[in-house]
Amino acid sequence: MPITLPADSVGLVTPQTIQFNEPLLLACGKTLDNYQLIYETYGQLNASKSNAVLICHALSGHHHAAGYHTLEDRKPGWWDAYIGPGKPIDTNKFFVVALNNLGGCHGSTGPTSINPATDKPWGPDFPKLRVRDWVASQARLADKLGIDTWAAIIGGSLGGMQVMRWALEYPERVRHCVVIASAMKLTAQNIAFNETARQAIMSDPNFCEGRYLEQNTLPRNGLAVARMIGHITYLSDYAMGEKFGRDLRKGSFERGVDEPVEFQIESYLRYQGDTFANNFDANSYLLITKALDYFDLAREYNDDPVLAFSHARAKFLVVSFSTDWRFAPERSREIVNALMGARKAVTYAEIESNFGHDAFLLPNPRYQQVFARYLAGIATE
Amino acid sequence: MPITLPADSVGLVTPQTIQFNEPLLLACGKTLDNYQLIYETYGQLNASKSNAVLICHALSGHHHAAGYHTLEDRKPGWWDAYIGPGKPIDTNKFFVVALNNLGGCHGSTGPTSINPATDKPWGPDFPKLRVRDWVASQARLADKLGIDTWAAIIGGSLGGMQVMRWALEYPERVRHCVVIASAMKLTAQNIAFNETARQAIMSDPNFCEGRYLEQNTLPRNGLAVARMIGHITYLSDYAMGEKFGRDLRKGSFERGVDEPVEFQIESYLRYQGDTFANNFDANSYLLITKALDYFDLAREYNDDPVLAFSHARAKFLVVSFSTDWRFAPERSREIVNALMGARKAVTYAEIESNFGHDAFLLPNPRYQQVFARYLAGIATE
What pTM was computed for the model? Predict the structure, then answer.
């Protein structure tokens, strides 16, 4: 509990909710008649509205990206290391907007919301979303906030996919794109991990074909296993080795001792799984991992990423991390190569880190420096 | 169905079973009063009994390593590519013994066997086993077969752990050790994958705390997810990409089409999981993955692998595969370094392969050549 908030914190923040009543036509052909988005803002929008930055979140992220909701909060928002006064996404300079995506489970309309047609939770009937649908709903949020053009749109992992889609769908509405630890499309291995996680959820008998809320239950076990699978892939082998190695939590390997042995890594992973299962909606998890799998930046551009990026007008910063094997540096290099092929301005940094995919969330001097310098160079007047 | 068996096949083989009535004291302190082992043999034991080779199997392996049980079999034994007349483990020269390990589910005594104390299946009460227990039971099998010294003991993955344990526990009983795609101990990441797979099994309500056979059910869903997790880690990202990429099995990404999309990799993985779940025992899976996690070659040698291997008398061939990330080449190099430190004869081959950990089971010209030449050099007279 921070009795006094850190000096470089955005401080206490209060989420806001906007209701949208203009129907949103989705990529699947269905229409969402109305919906709400929850979001937070940090910093002040300047008079020319030229300093707005949009943060796009990844699988387990949400609108609470920085600061604290109460003085009792033990932890700040999920990207607090990078958002705040004097931090890379400097709130002394920028007006930062972070939202919970449509289909999420942290306050924006999603599978846990009430379906007006049935007066029951949407559950599995919530429309399947694509990354482009998120981008469209974010554009509507920008309209409501009076932001015509973002100074920058920033996101890691799935967030980076939204950033790239923005650059193609609304080229005139974004000046800088920051794409971190992302990919133009997932590999088969990535899809395989997602599908295994989905199977863990869907084969939990409490899943009830997605209607668990109506049955007053939750597929906690399945969701916990799904998170464990994901969590392993967000860390590097090295980081796990350094943090846990083969250290024991209890038991002994002594000969003749019949005592259950438990490694530290086992209880850590189970804790991660259980915590997640109590805080995340299973249908949202299925929906978001499907959107991840389906994303393919260049699909409608003849599978040619150079052709795709030729539609962009923004400048790009692309960042990857050396031990990230879920979104490997090679995926980022493909983005950079395509951008260069399309003659776009691109800065690329491959950051040495031992922390795998999770590195995009963690403090790292070179990452902070690259990130800060790039954003410091963005004009906001 | 091979109407005529291939010329380089060991042909039709019949498993045999041996009953052991001498109590086996296990590492956990418990005693197994009697048990049986199922095994197959290929080739002929020579008069001096100097040409015997033991095959140690990995997680999902068993005694049926080569040849066919019937002319109707669609597939031969699991290591048929490497065992047979003229193959690397040449049955014209060697007498090959392959068994199903104790605790397995293919015919040797294990959790699905009847516990004489209760007249019910052992289930979760089957004693926890260590790699050293398998080695001890294999030594008893050697006694029964009249084999004092193995010309070679050969195994991949978990099988390689058994080979190394043999070299330390019965140094005078093995002349050559072939350790393929293995490790002296698992990394935290490896344990994490195993634990996630175990959680998938144990959180299946049909697991019934391991007493599913008594309840006339099977934790098929959990076991299928466990296998899916494992299967992803046995393949390389590259191999999955080459084989499946982002190819669709059904559905379409066309805009406005609300049709479920399924990638080929998804249905392939589910098929692998379902097939395994119908052919493997969940308690065996838990038992064997625990044995994998617990194995630590040098634990009782002051955590010094050089000291550990100083007790060996055998010569070694160590093999690893370039894209194997579950048992990475680095793990094999650690084995080689320790062997060299202990001044043991060791040949090491790091094989270029795109097929990840699974490469140890698959045809590969350089692997076959290295393997064949090493075994051809073993004296059997």
Answer: 0.95
